[in-house]
Automatic annotation (TrEMBL):
SUPFAM superfamilies: YbaB-like. The keyword Disulfide bond does not apply. It comes from the Bacteria. Gene3D superfamilies: Nucleoid-associated protein YbaB-like domain. This is YbaB/EbfC family DNA-binding protein. GO terms for molecular function: DNA binding. Keywords: DNA-binding.
Length: 108
């Protein structure tokens, strides 16, 4: 007994795949283009990170001459950790915006 091929279902599946690929490309472009700026607790260090997680700029506000090296290092670690968290948050937000209206395949 031959199985019946549901060509409409296959065409819909192909269309959905193409739509997912298009949305994925849009998402990939968005995470690279979107950046977030975070500051150290004392506001002396600013890190700009893309939603993809790439640090694109580090800015130091104020002089370095009289700073304690270990405290400065702690501030850098803190702001880099915050930048990683901000990038993850931005990715999740962008993912929701790009894929949020895409209906799931269940029930088809």
């Amino acid at each position: 007994m031959a199985r019946e091929i549901d060509e409409v279902w296959i065409d819909e599946a192909i269309d959905r795949y193409r739509r997912i690929e298009k949305l994925r490309a849009e998402f990939d472009r968005a995470v690279v283009a979107h950046s977030v700026s975070v500051h150290s607790p004392d506001q002396s260090i600013e890190v700009v990170v893309t939603a993809a997680g790439e640090i694109v700029d580090v800015r130091i506000h104020g002089g370095l001459r009289h700073r304690d090296a270990s405290e400065f290092a702690r501030q850098i670690r803190t702001v880099v950790t915050s930048a990683a968290e901000a990038a993850r948050w931005a990715r999740e937000k962008l993912h929701g915006e790009v894929f949020g209206s895409f209906r799931r395949l269940e029930g088809h």
